[in-house]
Design brief:
The structure holds two protein chains of two kinds. Chain A is mainly α. Chain A folds into two domains: about 375 residues, Alpha Horseshoe (Serine Threonine Protein Phosphatase 5, Tetratricopeptide repeat), CATH 1.25.40; about 60 residues, no CATH class. Chain A is about 55% helix and about 5% strand. Chain A is built from 21 helices and eight strands. By secondary structure, chain B is mostly beta strands. Chain B starts with a helix and ends with a strand. Classes of the chains: A mainly alpha, B mainly beta. At the A-B interface, α1, α2, α3, α6 and β2 of A face β28, β29, β30, β34 and β35 of B.
Chain lengths: ~475, ~1050
Amino acid sequence: MKKKINIVLAAMLLMLAWSCSQDIMDDINKNVNDPTNVSANLIITDAMITSAFSITGSDLAFYASIYMEHNVGIWNQGYSAEIRTGEPISATTYNNSWNTMYNNLYNLKTIIEKCSEDGDESDNYYTLGIAQTLMAHNLATLTDLMGDVPWEEALQPGFIYTPKLDNQEEIYAEVFSLLDAAIENFNKESIIYLGAQDFIYGGNAASIKDWEKLAYGLKARYTMRLSLKDAQYGKVIEYANKSFASSAGQAQLNYNGSTMVSPFYKFFTDRDYFGASESFYNKLDARNDPRLDLFWEPHPSSGSFLLAPNGSPDQVQGLYSISAISNPTAPTYLLSYHEIEFLKAEAYVRLNQLSDAKAALKKAVTAAFQKVNIGLTADDAEEYFTDEVEPRFNSNALSEVMNQKYFAFFEEEAIEAYCDYRRLRAMGDNVIQLVNPKNVDRFPQRYTYGNSDVTTNVNVREAYGDGSYVFTEKVWWAGGTR
Amino acid sequence: MRKITFMLVFLLAAGISGVFAQTRTVTGKVTSSQDGEGIPGVTVRVKGTTIGAITNLDGFYELNVRPDHRTLVFSYVSMKSQEVPLGTEVSINIVMEPDIFQIDEVVVTALGISKEKKSLGYAVQTVGDEELVRTGNANIMGAMQGKIAGVDIKPSSGMPGASSQMVIRGARSFTGNNTPLYVVDGMPIASTAPYSTGNSVTGSDVANRALDINPADIESIDILKGQAAAALYGIRASNGVVIITTKSGRGLAAGKPVVTFNHNTSFDVVSRTPDYQTTYAQGSYGVYQPTASYSWGPKIVDLPDDPNYGGNTDNQYTAEWGEQKGKYYVPQLDQAGLNPWLTPQVYNNWDDYFQTGHTVSNNLSVSQATSEGNFALGISMTDQKGIALATGMKRYNAKASGERNLNKNFTAGFSANFSKSNIDKLSGANDGSLTGPLAAPSSYNLKGTPYHIPGNPYRQIYFRGGSFDNSYWIPDNNTFNELNNRFFGNGYVNYIANLSEGMILRLRYQAGVDTYSTHLQDIFGFGARNNSQGVIDNYGTTYSLFNSTATANFDWKINSDLEFNAMIGNEINHSSSKSYWETGTDFNFGGWNHIGNAKIVTAGESQSEFRDMGVFGSLALSWKSMLFLNATGRNDIVSQMPRDNRTFFYPSVSLGFVATELPGLEDLSWLSFAKLRASYAEVGQAGRYLENYYLTPGYSGGFWLSEPIQYPIGGVNSYIPNSTQYDPNLKPQNTVSYEVGVDLKFFENRFGVDYNFSHQTVTDQIFPVPLAGSTGASQLVMNGGKVQTDVHEVMMYVTPVKTNAFQWDLNFNYAAVENNVIELAEGVESIFLGGFVTPQVRAGIGYTYPVIYGTSFVRDDDGNVVVIDNPGAWNHGMPMSGEPGVIGEVSPKFILGATNTFRFKDLSLSAVFEWKNGGEMYSGSNGLIDLYGMSAVTEDRESTFIFKGVKPDGTPNDIVRGGPNDPDAYQDLYANVLSDIDEYYIHDNSFVKLRELSLRYQFAKPIYKTMNIGVSLYARNILLWTALRNIDPETSQGNNNMGGSFERFSLPQTTSYGFGFDITF
């Protein structure tokens, strides 16, 4: 009997040995579905697409579009934002974008680490430069909309759970140093190019010059942004001159309309939250702007043309007219050529060099007319410029430059329009008139922090409070304190 | 139960025999006082020795005795033992009386061990076959509802194949699995859904794999509720174990085969119809708008006078068609090419839509026992047609089991089960298939208006805009289907030997597999409104589990008072699964909803393997049938944890004390039985650890109904760090529990109470801890959380009347489960389980699990709703949307199940009630029909109202709104104010349901030769009362931990009426 028991025990021990060796268990648990390491060029592709589609083109822009009266929110979250209940102060409104921005910054940080001195790809300078450029863009977008945000302590998952906030001023210093570092990297010798992984510029040898122009262009944009704090219009012009010379070189993400669909178009097909803005229509109408007939069309389910009143639309879908330039392939601009010319135009106006300003403005308006989803010609622009823009420029140069910029930004560049508007108001230049009656005390001076931080990061929670600060607290570059 | 008893006794006694000198032979037959038939398996023992025999299948025994032997003891587990003095007779026949204190007292505990219930130091509960099939429920989960204390079963809907959540004594995991381990005939099998419904705000339900078990195949279910009961199963058992024993030929008398056929037909109707307003037409602020989702329009009778669409007024339509007295213009009819002028009428789109569903099931089984062994074969078919169009389920089950005695030591056997099911479902929530029937305006004829334009079946006609499809268009165009094939079974060899006097060794080796493949299709056809060119998702999983279990069991009857049992064993579980998915977007043309017709196709696959390897042992000591001590230990090694944290030890110890065995209490007439019990156990749960990895980013969620960016793009792909990261120091979560209980039976067993208290503390919970977005990742899989649960369970039965002809039995199962979240990882206040940004279902510190979170009413310090005091403002006198917070707790205060049975001769009437007291749910449908102006509460739009609350200065609200001068107030209140306050959507969903009602007639005698027949009539889910308005409280989204708490355009519940009969010969 004892023998039998011994056999049983021996058999059990054998099974134990067979089935639980750590190496065997490691092998069983091996993740065969996903890679644990990939090279920087495979990561940066999505960093570009996310920067354009998700950060510049989607939610943040949709809400800016409402606040800037490019569109009127007529349903659900869009409607709440329009009438300023809930959405502007809720921490959940921009939570997806907040998370996306930090995720993307983390991806970019991963690339930067890989391509820096101690990384696996320390000679991959161009990819490093592109990552720095995109990081500067993402970081500036983040702080432009949210003000003081976590940065120094951010992006360390599993190590720092509650990152502290940094001043916008410090973050802006970081933005410029990233852009300078990028420009330096673009001027290094390298043979590594992104090729087809570069969805913005195509990744050939020539693309590096384009990326450098984008970096200069962003320096121009962000230098202008700080004008209230530190006006350096000469620098703006200097940087802008090193940037795009035509719309051919502008930084845009093109959509193929099938596996990539333009965000504003997708927002219409999936949500249908926007109606045509009455105030925006009226501004164009006053200028006999030829874009009047191109920007809007009746909603397909109503068939008749109806504008939505700003701040007081009926919450009904399928009633108000909609944007006609939202289409499946309408590109998203990280930075457009017309913006470069508008920056120059404003800088020249500020420096009182009006003829240079006018020349830049004309280039800007012409480029804006020729956007692919508008399709007007240079001649159309010429006529419009002469008849409508020039006289207005002559009477109030700044107003016309900024209003034309505001028109040109319809509808993909709503975030920039929103930043310009806040900067102009801070500088005392009330040249763009918004009519939403709720703006009397409920114009969002900024976006709320994301809910993921408000609920888990005490530093952000304290800064968020009850969210009502968005109506009163301006960001630092607009004269605020935080 | 007697069959199991027989088996147990058979095994125990098989070795008791001996041949000695000077012996003579005594023979005889043991019969039952109940039916006069021979009883197989009775132990016949010479008192004071271990010499004995057991009766054969006909009740005969043969025993050699010596002259010094004085007394024979006849014992059988559910019968009263008898002692008969030995004289010189050669034949002793006895008649045994049933021992009412012992009936149904043997239960199957962990790893196939059968034990007398009175010996257990923890609570288990058994559900018998009759209780399960009494009302012909095709779903085993539904069949168990209301019958087990401490077990909360939450169905999602009344759709065929709908998922249910089963949780025993509260939850132990926030986001992981809280459902028990299922063990069928000794083989652990999968019971959870292969796909979670995730946030449960889009798509359709996915059935759980318990559906593959045919209730008609079940002999009995033993529920091991506590950790002490389940500890031998180790790391898989922290949620309790459901041990299912299927029918076999084991308990049958040797001889001819037994054939059983049973049939059930039931008819299903929607369990509840919402109360609608029937006065007002589609539109907004009193104006008719023929494409609005709102019913805040003019009175239906006034539609002909509408300035824009009325036939009595001058407008563009009358200009075209001429005056249409008494009618109004409906553009949808014009789109359909019909006469667009309609006389106003009231429609009930809900009633128009639902059909009478039906379920037909047939079960045929053949079983036989012979002197060499036994077998059973069964086939069954269930065919269900749902109450909603194009829903249904077909299920086929086949089973076989057999056992053969190889020689006096060895037995070999097998059990095999096959199941095939095909389920047609509908989508819910934001993909709501039934938004039309629920919320279409009373003025709109949903059923009567064509659902597509003539000549183009892919352009829908619908009453409203937005992304919802016309419910009548869906059957031809959208598909939500599940196809499942499942096999599980095992083979085993038993060895039994009598080592020496009083020592029995039993060895068992069992190897089994559980394997299934499931293929799902989610199709929104060409022309679907959320994706105009359609989208198809094909996905599926092939899963297989191999299980090997070896046990060695040693029984030693040390002396007449002391018994000892030791067991050791080894178990290996190895599972592997492979999943695939392919998504096709944008069909080239309509009518061919196939991946081959899609313009964009993306695909993926995933493989995973798990191994869990355990060694375990138990020691049991019993003294004088009075004290029972049991200790177990199990060491598990699992593959899915980090290298140095793979091995865990789980102990348990339990003690049972039968007080009625004490000399002073033995003969009390009023107290038949009293036991005290206590136990302690630790059991854990493993997470899955992975090395941090990269993945192709997805763009779903947020505003997007389908992914706007889909890699690869033109041959280019991208990979980013996974935003879920893994803590390399992950360790298993641990559940420490103790329970104490008392089991009392009075007055010859006419009345019994079993009370149990258990306390569990779950520490180091493993879950993806949500991170602040600014950390760059979204979550970290780590240990971080603590939950405590206190459970009071009372099981009570009473037989108030008992005569030969009439018996009245009452059975109660009560449980109060308080499940509190004590701690979460630092910085985390809550864990998202499902739903939207708000409202959502989550776990939150300091609250019971789970809670509903969302925007609340602004309230003052006393909890009064504060209204806006701003004369002239549109929302003057109305409440405000405040901070998001916890707005509802899902857990009920208690659940009480009651079974009432009257038996009069051969007729029995049985009713199962369930009372869920307390608990709340988010009812999106209720809020939305208010928002749309369709619920009956919006019927009155002419009276004035004062919203209950206080003004900001603290004085009671006296602001009068509504009335003739303020016609928009009601719409503003429901559609613009309350619609923004999630708290308004929270409802108490307490209910009392008559779950089952059945009337059965069993012919007492065979109606022809050996043919026995029983017939029954029954009804299920008859709602008696609920605190929730308009919809059945057991209607919800999700097959995961959010189940039962969140409802939004969810599919309704059903009430069923049916009949069945069974024939045995």
